[in-house]
Amino acid sequence: MKKILYTIIILILGANSGCVEEDFLKENPRDNLYADNLFGTFQGFRLATNALLDFVRDEREDKIQSAELGFVWKIGVDNGWANTELSWSRGLNQYNIELNPEMQLMNGDTFGNPGIFLLMYRAINSANMIIARAENPDVDWQATSPEMELENKQLILGHAHLIRAWAYRHLVYSFGDVPITTEEINGLNYKNDWERRPVREIQELIVSDLLLAESYLPEVSNSALELSGAIASHYLAEIYLWMDMPEQAREKASRVVNGGNFALTTQRFGVRANQPGVPFMDQFYDGNITRAEGNREALWIFPNSDVLELPGASSNSMRRSWVINYNGYAPYTPENGGRGIGRLAISAWAFSIYEPQDHRFSEFAVRKYYIGFNGDTIRTQMDNSQMNVNNARWASTRKWDWTYDDPNLWNANFAFADQVYLRVAETYLLLAEAEMKLGNNAEAAELINQIRRRSNASEISPAQVNIDFILDERSRELVTEEHRRHTMVRTGKLLERNRALNKFAANIQDFQVLLPIPQRVIDANTDRVMPQNPGY
């Protein structure tokens, strides 16, 4: 019920009006949410930007069949695979003929959920609507001074430009050349002759949006519904690395790493500080997610719990997606982490690259055993020879463990805990990559070692720093969190590492670095031929 308000606003944001009304048919509804009066005040714009954030949270919902939608960027890579293969995941897991322009993942399902391509454009058009309507001179910005009026307007624009950049980031990494739209689409300017624009143009638009968001948003935010400029700086560092601009990448990543607002979690804290555990895992526990709760590593979080008393809880699927279906031999309990169905899994290679003493590979971070129905200890598996589809004993991450206090709900499908979406640890690794590209391996090694020290891993020397080591370290630190496919595309390593490190993804063909444009999009573009990506 908490999500009804956001749903209404999202429908407004995504709707296109296609008729011209006579004056006598027009109404002036002031007691309900309509686009014209929603965008009349600062409060209305805040509701709209809050709803805009829901597009990002869609990534971790099961929009296309019982797994987080973001799986598309996390399997079919060196460290991720589909333990339970279904029609929507098999093609990407094995790079076979089921990865094609007709697949459900690209085109959407029969329940009205769009595929990833159209979902991103819904987010883009919603952001464009906010950007366009913020320029209306009649908006009441509910300010007591011209300075406050500008500040309120910039806060709204900063959020809209950041979400537009977020959506184009997913699109350009996944599909390459894509259409650009920066205007609100309505019934008067709708078109069906879209042209795919070059990757470089998309990158430049993302940079432009992120620079604006960086300058308009606060350096740091204590509100889960108010994003910070540090998020924009982080993504700028990443996109600059892809554009081979390491000096600019270093500047943006340094702004976050050295700005004093964020820090790695190096000491135990929070709700389980007095229980056995490790600092690395404390930042993932519900009750430890926000800055008010002591988490200074999180750059972007998803609020879900009633504790935060915020509208719009989201049916998060991370635990359900990444935790195996163990209920055949062990009960659903808080100790066992709640219900999982094991659609997605960490690869054997990814487990194999941890040192034994690394906290990120400890029993607190990786599910190495379950307590069965009879109280017996049942060990999980992670050897390459055991990496087979439908393996209900495969090891899994514990980053997303969560269940209700009520035993009657321990088998609930979804999790409603607060969650971290983006962490400063990743910014450290982007900065290390920039330093390496600039020939500063000593500085890169020190940044990597700061991450390794906090997890009790051995330190490395500058001579060990190269792109493959950084990719390995990203996996150790960020597995199931990062959009791994984007990282592999950006660094040009997807083909090489898939073929060497993931037996399911080893069949990848060169053209499959890009995903297919949905056939429904190509068919709908009737006034201009939209070319498909080669090979499909």
TrEMBL record:
Residues 78-241 form the SusD-like N-terminal domain. InterPro entries: SusD-like_N, SusD_RagB_dom, TPR-like_helical_dom_sf. Residues 374-536 form the RagB/SusD domain. SUPFAM superfamilies: TPR-like (SSF48452). It is found in: Cell outer membrane. Keywords: Cell outer membrane, Membrane, Signal. Coiled coil: none annotated. Pfam families: SusD-like_3 (PF14322), SusD_RagB (PF07980). Belongs to the SusD family. This is RagB/SusD family nutrient uptake outer membrane protein. The lineage of its organism: Bacteria, Pseudomonadati, Bacteroidota, Cytophagia, Cytophagales.
